[in-house]
Amino acid sequence: MILINKKCFNNKVNSNENLDDWYQGIMIKKILKKYDIGGMPSDTANKNVKKVYNRDKKYIQENIIPFFEKDNGCIDEGLINILLTGDFIGYLVDLSEAPPNKELSSYWLKILGYYALAKFAFYDVAKMKNEIIDDAEIGNFNKQQCIDAILNKYNEIIEEFNSNHSKLKMVHEKLSRLNENSAKWNKKNRNAFIIKKIRDIKKKTSIELNGKEKFYKNSSGDVNKLCDIETFNNKLKYLIKYEMLDEKQRHIILNTMNISVCSYCNRQYITSYKPSEKKQNKIDVLTTADLDHFYPKDKFQLFSLSLYNFVPACPICNSRMKLDRPIEILYPYEECFGDEVKFEVIPIDEENESKALFNLLYGKDDILKLDKYKISINRFGISDNVKKKHVEGSIEMFQLEQVYQSHKEYTAEIIRTQAIYDTSVHDCVMNALFNDEKGNKSVKAILSHLQDNTEEVFSENEKNRILYGINNEDKNQELKKPLIKLTRDILNL
To answer: pTM of the full predicted structure?
Structure first.
């Protein structure tokens, strides 16, 4: 996992505009046009599309359109601009009422209210359903029956919250009633784990909703109901959806970000190339990356066009690993593994660890014997619970410990090289290579000759660049080369 410098978004699209301005100028016109016609499909749309729109028209007019309007009934272009290019995605996880900056102050509670419910429905409910399915399989229970029963109880609590925001209290009386009802259901169906699941639901609901009253009261329309969040997302597509961004514009964004490796795994190169003659009239430069939505576009439709919700990713991470799995992960524009998380090479056979290490260092093991070692990710030094959850989520989401096993030969080569240059002859070797005083053709002498005999002194960083390709002075090197985090951890740089 890498740390992406957000300055990458300030690269020039052309000599006059940066990415934010260019993107905002294009997309706001499309959204305003859809707003002016109330999300109505074009005249060329087929009959089924028009039929669906007419069915949804009342909901759109009563809930979707008002969400984007000011008190005077006019469209709030400021809100749309914030949704397009506002730097708010990384701050949402805190669920704080205080806006992160003045630019967001007028819109923060509305955005946060939507996010809190969308997150609640996607991460918590989906995760709960997955856990229930696993438990049901172990106990040979009827999975759908269990899910239906628990979700019904879940929505009862949500509906009560929506009917009376200011007086939501998970009192003992209500808890007793909930347990009593669940106990009857349990006795009838003989599914003992259902009681525990409903208690967990009660606790989670209380934590998420209690004290968050303002978030929901400031969300216009019916978005403040869990049972309606999927409907709200679905109908938002009439006004704002990812498909409004065409293929050419997607590739412009990816190329302008100037990120050369996958933001999630730091393993795969992201390259740009000129298309064949057949496509040159459509797109000037293509890229091998996907434009991933950090928060899935279908589950967080309001953020489907948010520039800071776009993450350049390799097709493996995006299309095979991430998908829409309800796992919270590191947000790569704000978070990274850092020094608290380290890649390590560990002998699998601990009893013969010293012998295995000797064989590894001195090349006694060929590629067929690399199964004696494994690459592990040590994350025991994390003190922050939120970061710990996100780190664990990223490792699970992208199967990092599994896919990094394919780089064992690479790590072995690094360890051997480091062992050679860390022996007692290290200084002699380094001096002969970099700073030979006897007039031999050292690297120093060659560079001095090429640079008009200018005296050249090599720093440790420059030596590491030559030996390992690591440049500690470049804060954005994680954007340019794969396996940088792995390399630095193995070398302790």
So the answer is: 0.78
